[in-house]
Specification:
By secondary structure, the protein is of the alpha/beta class. The protein has helices at 2-40, 62-68, 90-98, 126-146, 162-172, 225-232, 257-262, 271-281, 298-305, 317-332; strands at residues 48-52, 55-59, 74-79, 104-105, 118-119, 147-156, 175-183, 211-218, 249-251, 288-291, 309-314. The strands form two sheets. Strands 1-2-11-10-3-6-8-7-9 form a nine-stranded mixed β-sheet, with helices on both faces. Strands 4-5 form a two-stranded antiparallel ribbon.
């Protein structure tokens, strides 16, 4: 009788432990995040702004900051980097502000609306493309070191340069997990021959772009997805609902005028799109999202809107200041 009762009690205890295990590992993840966040947001000596208890923006170069981060210290990267390097050189930024073009194409007005300048990626030389590959390789190797196992990278590109950019991440050791296609029609592409538009009215030099590719990469797991999730909180993607996974085609209108007034950045992405990507990046909703090229702070605002911790860097003090003012209204937008 005693042995039977003892066996029954032992079985109940064992079942109880099994039922408590999910709470134990999740509590450990959440406690570790709070402790870790306090350290990560204070790394380095650069100027920084704590935009909220969960958000910090640092005036720093992406490659430099990635080198300062301890290994396995961030859980996801969501970023829209400069698609080229030369368009953000001072001489080209001045041409953009003056409306004189240069590497920036100034689109014509349409339906009474003045369009924002767009960079001409077709003007990049072979040397500039090689320079760009070297740049993305440095970012990719730094990201591989800083991310925890199973951490994802979502990186925006464009149809002209995506293969080069994405290959750099695969060379660094990331697993490519697919692409998120932002379906959006812009004024990019469809141009007539420059200086001969009237002479060749039926000719376009390239198609009108109606999509934007976001490369999706994952740092290799340690063990199974389940084991990685319990240890690091990463390895998968957060579903929109239990019955609805993240889809790789997301229809999305161009950024609204309301958002552009808040943050007049030339490459501002809409919160409606960014919040879907950022939310998916942390499968359990636990961890730190990092944007190496934070610009006007749209990734940071999206993270705040979904309740995540996030850190951003940018080497442009102008954009850091823009983000300081744009963060609160962007994160509060209804989408």
């Amino acid at each position: 009788m005693y042995s039977t009762e003892r066996a029954g009690i032992a079985a109940k205890t064992k079942r109880g432990k099994k039922q408590q295990q999910p709470l134990a590992w999740r509590e450990q993840l959440e406690a570790g995040q709070i402790k870790h966040w306090k350290k990560v947001r204070e790394i380095g000596d650069e100027i920084r702004f704590h935009l909220s208890d969960r958000t910090t923006y640092i005036h720093d170069d992406a490659v430099h900051f990635l080198a300062e981060l301890p290994p396995n210290s961030i859980h996801a990267i969501v970023t829209d980097p400069p698609y080229g390097l030369i368009e953000y050189e001072e001489k080209h930024l001045q041409k953009r502000k003056a409306g004189s073009g240069g590497v920036w194409r100034v689109p014509p007005s349409f339906d009474g609306s003045t369009r924002a300048p767009l960079p001409r990626f077709t003007v990049l030389s072979g040397d500039e493309i090689n320079q760009l590959h070297t740049f993305f390789s440095a970012v990719a190797y730094g990201a591989l070191r800083a991310l925890v196992p199973g951490g994802h990278v979502f990186i925006a590109s464009n149809p002209l340069l995506s293969s080069m950019c994405f290959h750099a991440f695969q060379e660094a050791g990331f697993e490519k997990r697919g692409e998120i296609i932002r379906q959006v029609q812009t004024l990019r592409g469809g141009y007539k021959p420059k200086g001969a538009e009237a002479e060749f009215p039926d000719v376009s030099v390239m198609p009108r772009s109606c999509w934007e590719p976001w490369g999706m990469f994952r740092k290799p797991l340690i063990g199974t997805v389940s084991e990685n999730l319990k240890t690091w909180g990463t390895g998968g993607l957060r579903r929109a609902t239990p019955d609805e996974p993240l889809r790789d085609l997301i229809p999305c209108y161009p950024t609204r005028g309301t958002e552009r007034k808040i943050a007049p950045h030339p490459s501002l992405k809409p919160q409606r799109f960014m919040r879907q990507i950022v939310r998916a990046a942390l499968p359990l909703g636990v961890g730190i999202v990092y944007d190496p090229f934070a610009g006007s702070g749209s990734t940071l605002a999206a993270a705040a809107a979904v309740g995540y911790h996030a850190i951003g860097t940018d080497r442009s003090l102008e954009y850091v200041e823009m983000a300081r003012h744009a963060f609160a209204p962007l994160s509060a937008l209804k989408v």
